[in-house]
Design a protein that fits this description.
By secondary structure, the chain is α+β, with helices and mostly antiparallel strands. The protein has a single domain, classed as Factor Xa Inhibitor (Irregular). The protein is built from three helices and three strands; from the N terminus they run H-E-E-H-E-H. The chain has helices at residues 8-13, 38-43, 52-61; strands at residues 14-16, 22-25, 47-49. A three-stranded antiparallel beta sheet has the order 1-2-3. The two termini are 19 Å apart.
Length: 65
């Protein structure tokens, strides 16, 4: 059998935690920071855990992760 391919976009955007949850980077922090409140910029630091509804979809893109 051939190997399953990982989606290139998914491997750049998502990682799996040790417990199997999907970790993602926060959105809306690339540019236009002057429009955003300091609270919003502060809360978008680091990474976040993907919701359970989207986790199953993303895990299909990462077959061996």
């Amino acid at each position: 059998m051939p190997k399953m391919k990982t989606k290139s976009g998914a491997k750049k955007r998502f990682t799996l935690t040790a417990t199997g949850k999907v970790r993602m980077s926060q959105a809306n922090k690339r540019h236009g920071m002057i429009k955003r409140t300091n609270k919003q910029i502060r809360n978008q630091r680091g990474t976040a855990i993907l919701s359970e509804a989207d986790t199953a979809r993303v895990k299909r893109y990462l077959p061996y992760a």
